């Protein structure tokens, strides 16, 4: 074994500090959310209690948290499914190098880099001008897609750039129809990446703030509700909420990563699904 | 056959095109149109006028706010690049075990999938007047009085930007670094290059595309931001995004739209310059 150099240890320390910087503040509010009933927004802890979590479940304490959570969850699922389907179709389309694909590519990049508040403002103005009702499931949904689709498509581009075309040629040579080739050859190969696209779709939507700000209408999504709380809630109840939503996010991320891992294991174990497509 | 390919391509890209048309192109067109309209306190009047732009360019606030935006963007860029490059370099060249590498890389990316608002809020107990940083410094005897500039200042704004966006540097730089042919590094070493020389003459030039993509992400996110500046400065600092959101709050949509148009043009110029140095399609 090669002896580790001095730079290795310096860089390891740097990396550890970076991880502490990334996670430290979140862990701090995690601890402070167990603050005793008399405690404030900073240390010291005045005892430990579940008081602030309990308060979250009292109807009158703070706004419509559970309603906004349900809306954010539903919207996240809608955006996730749409992002996966549209990104896969888009990925297939771009492989054909059709006329005008270059312009569409730059529109995707534009969608990624445009300041979010412009989408929020523009979509809000359009809905107002045409007398349409602003609602999280219509204007909010579309606005969020302009943020999740570029990520989904960039992943699909990366996947198809590395895709071995001989698999498809082999399927075609064996007499598979174009649909069978997609269904039994291409989709199973790219499945883990699709789970990745789904993860981006759900979490980016679930946490989106700026693009939903002017497009959610009278019913808030969870990030909007939390931001509203920051201006008028001065108790650790906001930490309790932050801790719960972060735990929820981690749960979702864990579920996605686990699915990718299980798929990989299964594939390694079964090796081939030959004959399944008959 | 050839014609067929183009039609098929457009059919498959149709949902994507419709979303981009309805929620990207049309909103931009609307903003440009509305930026030439007039507004009273109660309504907006669709009549062509340049007064929004005249007001915008005539006001010293505009220049101050644009300057602040560039200041936030450039400082954040420099810091995220320095940290992001170091972290990516460590992961790509010092971690030899692939499973460890993937695990540590995921550890760096997981916060990206959690809420930015919560991650901003979580700095309060750390930076506040009676926060962890102040009490630690006081107990060490470094300071007598709590530092007031830790929270609600340029410092906390930039700290939050670096905290939120370093990820966007780490991922593309790591991605390009893992694709560097290791025989090039061995060749450099065989020819007598020191570790530092290998870094500056071999790795750094080969990592440039990743750095450019990270730069595009960080610059556009910071330049278009309004919420981080508002929250982390306690509404005491301003950037262009806040100028727009303040106008929106006052229902001054034409004025907000004019500022938005100028911001968009600025961002597009910056991206246009950066795209000359990198072919994104090739790097995916």
TrEMBL record, chain A:
One of its GO terms (cellular component) is plasma membrane. Its main location: membrane. Pfam families: BPD_transp_1. The keyword Metal-binding does not apply. The keyword Cell membrane applies. Residues 69-256 form the ABC transmembrane type-1 domain. The chain crosses the membrane at residues 7-34, 73-94, 103-127, 147-163, 184-204, 237-263. It is found in: Cell membrane. It is a multi-pass membrane protein. Keywords: Cell membrane, Membrane, Transmembrane, Transmembrane helix, Transport. Gene3D superfamilies: MetI-like. GO terms for biological process: transmembrane transport. Belongs to the binding-protein-dependent transport system permease family. CysTW subfamily. This is Putative spermidine/putrescine transport system permease protein. The lineage of its organism: Bacteria, Pseudomonadati, Pseudomonadota, Alphaproteobacteria, Rhodobacterales.
From TrEMBL, chain B:
The keyword Cell wall biogenesis/degradation does not apply. Its main location: membrane. InterPro entries: MetI-like, MetI-like_sf. Pfam families: BPD_transp_1. Keywords: Cell membrane, Membrane, Transmembrane, Transmembrane helix, Transport. It is a multi-pass membrane protein. It is found in: Cell membrane. GO terms for biological process: transmembrane transport. Belongs to the binding-protein-dependent transport system permease family. CysTW subfamily. This is Putative spermidine/putrescine transport system permease protein. The lineage of its organism: Bacteria, Pseudomonadati, Pseudomonadota, Alphaproteobacteria, Rhodobacterales.
